[in-house]
Amino acid sequence: MSTPTRIAPWSGLSPAVWILVVARTVNRIGAFTLPFLGVVLTVEFGASLTETGLIVALFGAATIPSRLLGGQLADRLGRRRTIVLGLTGCAVAQLWIAVSTQLWSAVVATLLLGLAFEIYEPPSQATIADVTEPVDRPRAYGLLGAAMAAAGVLAGLLAAAVSHWDLRWLFVADALSCLACAALVAKALPADIRRHREQAAPAVWRDRRLVLLLVSGTVFATVYMQLIIGLPLTLLEQGLPKSGTGFILAVSAVTLIVGQRLLRVRHLDDFRAMTVGYILLAAGLAVTAFSQSLTAFLIATLLWSLGDLFLLTRYLTLASGLAPDHARGRYLAVFGLSWGVATTIAPLTVTQLLKIGPEALWLSSAVVSVVLAILQPWFRTRLARA
């Protein structure tokens, strides 16, 4: 008897995965403020380019304790409670930014946003790993990525439309989506399970594979955050409309969705997929370096978005595979520090390299991506046991 084939690449996943996917999709539709944060600080509050870099770096630094707190709370307080807490905190901070009239108030609200921004990530990622077999985790994380990309299409169009008015409305939309997401999680996600105290303190930092994965992930996250933060500022310097960022991010989202359906990404092992991803990312960054029209930026977007398709879920799969069940929240929180560090570094590197020129920013990022592609066989020998 032949083995039945799956009707869809995401069939058979736990209902809890689908609940999280729907909730995060709702949140994603409004969560398009980060790429515009630097523009808002510059245009709406009169911050200089250097001040904007420092403020956004402050936001990034605040996400580091935010991520660690999310991991601790996920394993002790529970996944569902922690997600709701983090999303509510984000909503409060977003509304604060929207109503601010002075730069100092926007800075305080940005700091609060950073402190709440990453709380919900470790429990969300841990919940997916909790209810999914290791072999199915790339599919589950891929579903989350595809759903958020689909929401990103709507979010990009929303950002493009609202950017013609007052950019503060983006923060209002994000706050409302955070509250809607929190309400759905509180009502529909399974009840929290209390962890025993004797399981509360594994030696997370002694796992050398996790530390190595954290270093690699931090380099990738820095390149990724330079794209998110640097693209709007590059368009601004090229004299292109602010709405172009929304269209670029929408095209990126469409590329992720179509790519997941057409490309056999899930049939590659983690390290081969990441090698391909880094090569495509490097190509997109190289094209970005010499783009001067919106059309050229969109071509570059197709390339680096295909690279992201091969990269984003694989890091989460490797990190969740390293963790024991009772400490998965903290393992994913520690790995997630890569994004906090990247969000701290990227605003500084972006603003300083843009002073030299767009080519300096994007070509240096392309070189880093090529190096990471070359190093994947070396990472395989040290992380394959994950």
UniProtKB/TrEMBL annotation:
Gene Ontology CC annotation, any one: plasma membrane
One of the Pfam families matching this protein, by short name: MFS_1
Subcellular location: Cell membrane
InterPro entries attached to this UniProt entry: MFS, MFS_dom, MFS_trans_sf, MFS_Transporters, Sugar_transporter_CS
Protein name in UniProt: Putative MFS family arabinose efflux permease
Keyword terms, alphabetized: Cell membrane, Membrane, Transmembrane, Transmembrane helix, Transport
First-listed, main subcellular location of the protein, grouped into a coarse class: membrane
